Amino acid sequence: MDPSTSVILVEALYSFKGKNNDELNFKKGAIITVTQNDDETWWEGTYDGTTGWFPANYVRPFHSSDNKGSLSNGHTELQSPAGEQQMYRALVLRSLLDSERQYLADVHHLLSECLRPLIAHKKSSWEPLRRLVEQLERVAGVHEALLGRVEHEGEQPSADQRVGGAFLAMAADALAFEHRQYCLLHPKGVCSLQQHQTEVNQFVEGTNLCEENCDGQKKPGLLVLTTGLSKPFRRLQQYAGLLQELHRHLPEAHKDRGDAHRAAKIMADLSASCQSARRQKELELEVVTQELAGYDRGTLSALGEVVFMGSVAVLPDHTDRYIVLFPHHLVVLSVSARMSNFIFQSEHNLSEISCRSLDDCSQYKNAFELSGAKLNRLVVLCQSKEDQMQWVQRLSQPPPLMPAFSAPSAPDVADKNQLSPKLPPRMPVAGKQAGEFLRQQPSVLPSHTRAPEASKVPAGGPKPWSLCDLRPTPPIRPSHLARLRT
């Protein structure tokens, strides 16, 4: 089907309100432009500028001698001429490919001309930098695979290009995993460079990486390296805008329209997640490397690696505090009035304190209690129920068995949501992978593979029958059906 010449329109027989963010909402009589109808049970379509999935048994083919009038009266509008759209879409795709090639060229140049020789020059030191460089090489490998996929789509006829689908296929696994690992290693890698600033400047200035600024002087080598090592973050931020622009120039009936829209949201969410992870690691590094006011034993680095760290409030005055968990100690910190540095408050051996969760009440929510022989009872308020559970679980473990670091585990979606045997649809493989990625994320964008909640019967008895009961039940989406079978 060529979306520029053959557009499939359907009319809604019933109103439908999607339960997942990738499902369409419409009222009875809405005219929907179909974008994907490969499956017999659930189709993808565009209505009122939004693309999403809907049950195929809620619609019927739309035939009218005056399509334009029906469309303009409301429910959707055909976009600009197909030729103009295709031209702009080609420009966006070329910009995406050119910028991706340039990004990879810059990264490989940085690796070959400076980072690898620098590590080889200092094999016995700078271990955090070595791990960061190895991870940067893996990130570059993932982007090369992504570039290959997008180039392949660019070679297809315009109606068959699935650029959004290519991003969805990689965002759930490779892109998300490798970028998150890079974000976790980045702060320590950059810190090791800063600790050897003089040597780094001398080494880098001897390469061809140092460009001259407007005053005719070369940029410091440390600045060149830190700028280069931040390229993955900046590149990740650009994808959402490029995909949104690509989506804007896709015809309403194009098969990639929904995937491009979802991919833009997922990449924006991934970028935000990676930034948050990096800021958390930078905060943890600051805590263990800087000298704290009120702490007379140097730095907290002697206590080991930070296992977990978070911002809490302490009763009875709701005082803001940071609590930092080490393998064998718990440290309580406050922040200076200017929010410029941490102040040491107390340190506790984990073997001498106990922790228990507190039920929510009128005085506090998401709280747990700390107590011990050398610690007065302390009621700690967390920002969320998940944070409360994380702290109680970690503080309840015996210190010798506590891991050096464990990323917060994602909530088990299957436990929280009952699978309804009345609802499952078809999703492309890329869509399923994207759903898995989103289930691992505390995201504002819920997974489209997430099962809707089962309908609840009122306590007073069954609901009285109404004409709405004649409406057909949406079929089960294939992704849910596959999970039920497993």
From TrEMBL:
Record InterPro entries: DBL_dom_sf, DH_dom, PH-like_dom_sf, SH3-like_dom_sf, SH3_domain
One Pfam family hit: RhoGEF
Region (Disordered): 402-486
UniProt superkingdom: Eukaryota
A cellular-component GO term for this protein: cytoplasm
Domain (SH3) ranges: 5-64
Keywords attached to this entry: SH3 domain
GO biological process: vesicle-mediated transport
One MF annotation (Gene Ontology) recorded for this entry: guanyl-nucleotide exchange factor activity
Domain DH residues, every copy: 88-277
The protein's name: Rho guanine nucleotide exchange factor 7
Species for this entry: Hyalella azteca
